[in-house]
Amino acid sequence: MPAKAAITHVEPAASASPRSRQLNIATPTGQAKSQRIPALDFTKGALVLLMVLYHWANYFLEPPAKFYDYLRFLTPSFIFITGFMVSHVYLSKYAAADPRLSRRLITRGVKLIAVFLTLNLARNLVGPMLGTGAPARNLPFAASIFAVFVSGDFPVTGGKLISFSILVPISYLLMLSGVLMLAYKRHKYIFHTACILLLLSILGLARFDIRVYNIEFITIGLLGVLTGFMPVRAINDIGRHPYLLAFAYLCYLTAITTWNVPFLLLVVGVFLTLIVIYLMGASGDERGSVNRGVILLGKYSLFGYISQIAILQILNAGFRRLSFGFAALAISFVAAFALTILSVEVMDRGRALNVGVDWMYKLVFA
After folding, report:
1. Which among 37, 51, 43, 5 has a CA at the least distance from the CA of 304?
2. 159 falls in which pLDDT band (50, 70, 90)?
3. How far apart are CA 33 and CA 265, in angstroms?
4. φ and ψ at 320, to 5 degrees?
5. Closest to 178 in 3D by CA, of 113, 90, 89
6. Angle, in degrees to the nearest 10, between helices 289-299 and 326-353
């Protein structure tokens, strides 16, 4: 889940290309780089909504395994955006040599681990009362620890091992970025080097048919960091070739239909999907009610991710005791989206009206 950051939209300069002005995309340089880009918030908000669809299907349907291949980009996309924010946002707010930057990144990573543990402890305590199943007892303790914190692979029977699993690789990425940032001033290519080493480790493990998903996710996060070093103008330029982008996405869909989702295709899917969503957000009217709602959801993407899982577990517990058939599916589907958006609206208003709510939010998520 993506790290939170303060970015504000800036109108394109007069010299910006007509296409950039049409898309209403910022082409920031210098200080403008730290300001908020609505298209980026739209991208994060759209990912949260897609995640609602993913988890709703998980709780209320039994789709074929192939269904999930087409949504495999979701988790690494959040992690990619987190990496993007590290270089594009944090490095514009702090000097690379400023120890506060490393401290902030490492502290945020530790916070997310604490949030992850707290949420799953609460889930284990409340889950039996809601009748949502018992999680962690499906595997021996040592195997559970390894699956959660090392491999990132959760082979579970009779219930899901954990919830909020995305928080683990995001926290690893933030802590690793904080450590690498200590050397960044002296070694400008330290992130490139770390990314190459992780890529080589993935290739080495693949020779033995081993996939360590947490390593893959962290590598994709570092690719996000490297992308964040690029000027936004370079990303905007891709929007000038919509037909080529559509053809590339069609090739990607054909490839995962044929070969499932190996790591290379996962990376391609993350890049293509994020670019498509970003350009959709950039070409829309940010003042429209739908776009505004998605953008707000993007500003609270981590909170939205956590709240929608809690909402879906409660809905699942309630609807499992009732037999409404198709009506239950339809109601639960609409309720999942509506309540997720409502939870973010309530949090946003609560922060504006109550200093205590704002302080608690910042304590956990900032």
Report:
1. 51
2. very low
3. 30
4. -70, -20
5. 90
6. 70
Q: Is the distance from CB of 315 to CB of 335 less than 8 angstroms?
A: yes
Place of tokens 């209320």: 60
**Higher local confidence (pLDDT), 4 or 130:** 130
Q: For the segment 274-313, what is each residue's pLDDT rounded down to a tens digit?
A: 999 998 888 877 777 888 999 999 999 999 999 999 899 8
Q: Residue type at 232?
A: V
CA–CA distance, 344 with 275 (Å, rounded to integer): 25
243 Cβ contact partners less than 8 Å away, ≥ 6 residues apart: none
Identify which of 58, 86, 71 has the alpha carbon closest to the alpha carbon of residue 2: 86
User: pLDDT digits over 81-116, tens only?
Assistant: 999 999 998 988 888 888 899 999 999 999 999 999
Residue 251, both tokens: 């090739």
Pairwise CA distance, residues 220 & 199, whole Å: 9
**pLDDT of 344 higher than 90:** yes
42: its two tokens? 């739209």
Residue 60 near residue 325, CB atoms below 8 Å: no
Calpha distance 289→208 (Å, rounded): 51
Of residues 28, 49, 25, the one with CA closest to residue 39: 25
Task: Report how far residue 43's alpha carbon sits from residue 362's, in angstroms, rounded to the nearest whole number.
Answer: 22
Packing angle, helices 167-184 and 213-228, rounded to 10: 50
Rounded Cα gap, residues 87 and 179, in angstroms: 14
Complete DSSP assignment for 94-161: S-TT-HHHHHHHHHHHHHHHHHHHHHHHHHHHHHHHHT----GGGS-HHHHHHIIIII-----SSS-S
Average pLDDT over residues 352-357: 96
Q: How far does CA 300 lie from the centroid of its chain?
A: 11
